[in-house]
Amino acid sequence: MDIVYYGDPVLRQVAEPINEIDDEVRALADGMVRALTLKKGVGLAAPQVGVSRRLIVVDLEAEDYFEIVVNPEILKTSDEMVEGNEGCLSIPGSEAEVMRHETIWVRGTTLDNETFEFEAADWLARVFQHEIDHLNGKLFIDHIDEAKRLQVLKEFERVKREEKAEV
Ligand SMILES: [Zn+2]
Questions:
Q1: Does pTM surpass 0.85?
Q2: pLDDT digit string, tens, across residues 21-41
Q3: Which pLDDT does position 165 carry in this prediction?
Q4: What is the fold, at CATH topology level, of the domain defined by 9-166?
Q5: How many whole angstroms from 129 Cα to the centroid of ligand 1?
Q6: Ligand 1 center to residue 12 CA distance, Å?
């Protein structure tokens, strides 16, 4: 599965909820896990592989956390905000400091159709906010100021040119 880049309209769509966990959803999850591992990323949302459905994969080795989450939603957020470095597989090239809620409460469903709720803090909370943003057509560059955004997009254009040159 190829990663879809910034500029593709699928990244700006609000993704559809998954009503049934069938073979198609399981195959999508498999493909996403493979793509994420290949790119050594920490999180991936289905729109990033061109599928506008509410499914994310989070693989945060540093916190020993791996989960495929169907229909993830943020139930509650802490008032406290923290700044941290973020990048995106759909906008490769550079990273930027992004403000996120320090702690969030998440509800989601596993591929075995079990619904769970949990509290995530720090990095894990950041990754979940980033990936759930993707399901709502939002990108990390929407959270940063104009000057920084232009810088990120300039680096992204450079990466795209280099990738084209390699082909
Ligand atoms: Zn992203």
A1: yes
A2: 999 999 999 999 999 999 999
A3: 86
A4: Peptide Deformylase (3.90.45)
A5: 10
A6: 12
Catalytically active residues, by annotation? 131
Distance from Cα 30 to the centre of ligand 1, integer Å: 18
Structural domain boundaries in the chain: 9-166
Residue 151 CA to ligand 1 centre (angstroms): 17
Model confidence over 109-161: pLDDT tens digits?
A: 999 999 999 999 999 999 999 999 999 999 999 999 999 999 999 999 999 99
* CA distance readout (Å), 164 to 113, 157, 158, 160, 161: 41, 11, 10, 6, 5
- Going by C-alpha positions, the residue among 8, 25, 7 that lies closest to residue 16 is 25
